[in-house]
Design brief:
It is built from seven helices and 14 strands. It is an alpha+beta fold and 383 residues long. The strands form three sheets. The protein has an eight-stranded mixed β-sheet. The protein binds 2-oxoglutaric acid and fe (ii) ion. GO terms for molecular function: metal ion binding; oxidoreductase activity.
C-alpha cells in the first residue's frame, strides 16, 4: 500500500468563508468516518460477479450482500467475472491513446468543452479543476445517446439540463477512423453491466430486484477517456519524496449513482482513508473498480458511502482510464429510499431531479477550481 499525507484543497492567502467551508466539507467526507463497519485494515473487497448471472435468486442475493457490505464501509470494490471481454477493455484503452496522441491541437480545439454547456467534449488539462489543484489530466467526455445503447433506449432521453437531443461532440471519422464504432462497442457493454449492477444494488437495499429498471430506460451515463502524462523520467526515480505532487485529478467524490472504472496498468487512483492517508488502488487483472457516488449517498440518506479519491501518476508511463458515471434517467425525481429510513426517521435530503443535481455539481469544476466550495447547495439538507 502506498501512502502519503493528506492534501486538502489549496487555500489562498485570504481564506474566504467559502474556502474554509469547502475544506470542512472535504474533511467531513473522510471515508466512512466513525463507521463501526469500517475494517481495521483497509482493503478494497473483490466481488466475483459469476453467481449474479445465474438463475438462482439466492446466488444473486449473496453477491448483493457483498455489495452492501462494501457500500456501507469502503464505498469502493473491485468486480471480476463481469462478462465484458478483455479485448473490449484493451480496445477502448487504445482508442483513448489514439484520441490523445493522434488528433492535432486544432482538431481537439474543434471539440473543446467550452463549446458545451453540459461538460461534453475535449477537456485540456487546465480547463477544469476540482479542488484548486493544477491538474495534469486531459479528458474527452461523452454522454448517453440511443445509438450507443444496445437496448435502443425508449426514445425519452433528456440531457442533464432537461433538453432533448444528442449533444455529444465527436471527432470526424476522417480524422480518427473507427473511433466512434470503438467507443460504441465499449459503451454498449458497460451500460448493460451498469444496469445489471443496479439490479444487484436494488437487492442490496432490500428492494425488489427490478426496482430501478424503469428509472434506467434512458439513463445518464457520462464516460470519459482520460490521459495522465508520465511524471517520472525513469522507473527508478522516486516522485513520492518530491515536494510537489503531480496531481492528475484532484481530491473529489463522484456525482452520480456509481462509477465503473477501467484503467491501463499504470497505477494512479488513490482513496482517502479515515486516517487521512491515501490508499493506492491495485485492481486485480481483468477487473473494474466500482465506487458509490454522491447521488446514491444522498438517495440512501447516507447509508451508502461516497468516498473521496484522486489520481496521481508518479510513474514514467502514461496512464489511461475510462470512468463511466452511471445515473438514473436525468428526468427522474428521487427522494430517499424507504428502506434507508428507520422507523420515524426523517430524510436528511429534499427530493431532487437527477440531472439538476449532477449539472450543478459539474458546473462547479470550471469556476476557478472552486469545486467543493460551490457544492454546498446541492448537499443542502432538509431544514
Ligand atoms: O482516472 C482514474 O483513475 C479515476 C478518474 C476519476 O476518479 C474521475 O474521473 O472521477
Ligand atoms: Fe472520480
Amino acid at each position: 500500500m502506498a501512502t502519503d499525507t493528506m492534501t486538502l484543497p489549496r487555500q489562498t492567502d485570504t481564506t474566504t468563508q467559502h474556502e474554509a467551508r469547502s475544506t470542512a466539507y472535504l474533511e467531513s467526507r473522510l471515508a466512512a468516518k466513525d463507521n463501526p463497519n469500517l475494517p481495521s485494515t483497509y482493503t478494497i473487497p473483490i466481488i466475483d460477479l459469476t453467481p449474479s448471472f445465474t438463475p438462482s435468486l439466492s446466488a444473486r442475493q449473496s453477491v448483493a450482500s457483498q455489495i452492501r457490505s462494501a457500500c456501507t464501509s469502503t464505498g469502493f470494490f473491485y468486480i471480476t467475472s463481469h462478462n465484458i471481454p478483455s479485448t473490449s477493455c484493451t480496445a477502448i484503452l487504445s482508442q483513448a491513446e489514439r484520441f490523445f496522441s493522434t488528433l492535432s491541437p486544432a482538431q481537439k480545439e474543434e471539440l473543446h468543452i467550452k463549446k458545451s454547456e453540459l461538460g461534453l467534449g475535449w477537456e485540456p488539462s487546465s480547463y477544469t479543476s476540482i479542488a484548486g489543484d493544477v491538474e495534469t489530466k486531459e479528458a474527452f467526455n461523452f454522454g448517453y445517446e440511443e445509438g450507443l445503447d444496445r437496448s435502443g433506449g425508449d426514445g425519452k432521453y433528456r440531457n442533464l439540463d432537461g433538453s432533448e437531443g444528442n449533444r455529444n461532440l465527436w471527432p470526424k471519422e476522417s480524422e480518427l477512423a473507427g473511433f466512434y464504432e470503438g467507443v460504441k462497442e465499449y459503451y454498449g457493454g458497460i451500460l448493460d453491466l451498469a444496469r445489471h449492477l443496479f439490479r444487484l444494488f436494488a437487492l442490496s437495499l432490500d428492494l425488489p430486484e427490478t426496482h430501478f429498471d424503469h428509472m434506467t430506460t434512458h439513463p445518464g451515463g457520462i464516460a470519459r477517456l482520460m490521459y495522465y502524462p508520465p511524471t517520472a523520467s525513469s522507473p527508478n526515480s522516486d516522485l513520492a519524496s518530491n515536494q510537489s505532487e503531480p496531481i492528475g485529478l484532484g481530491a473529489h467524490s463522484d456525482y452520480e449513482c456509481f462509477t465503473l472504472l477501467l484503467s491501463s496498468p499504470t497505477p494512479g487512483l488513490e482513496i482517502l482513508l479515515p486516517s487521512g492517508h491515501w490508499h493506492r488502488a491495485q485492481p486485480p487483472p481483468n477487473s473494474f473498480i466500482v465506487n458509490v457516488a454522491d447521488f446514491m449517498m444522498r438517495w440512501t440518506n447516507g447509508v451508502y458511502k461516497s468516498t473521496i479519491h484522486r489520481v496521481v501518476n508518479r510513474g514514467c508511463q502514461a496512464r489511461y482510464s475510462v470512468p463511466f458515471f452511471f445515473s438514473v434517467n436525468y428526468d427522474e425525481v428521487v427522494e430517499t429510499l424507504p428502506t434507508c429510513l428507520k422507523e420515524g426517521e426523517v430524510s436528511r435530503f429534499k427530493p431532487i431531479r437527477a440531472g439538476e443535481y449532477i449539472l450543478e455539481r459539474l458546473n462547479t469544476t470550471t469556476k476557478e477550481g472552486k469545486g467543493f466550495a460551490g457544492n454546498e447547495a446541492v448537499f443542502e439538507e432538509n431544514p
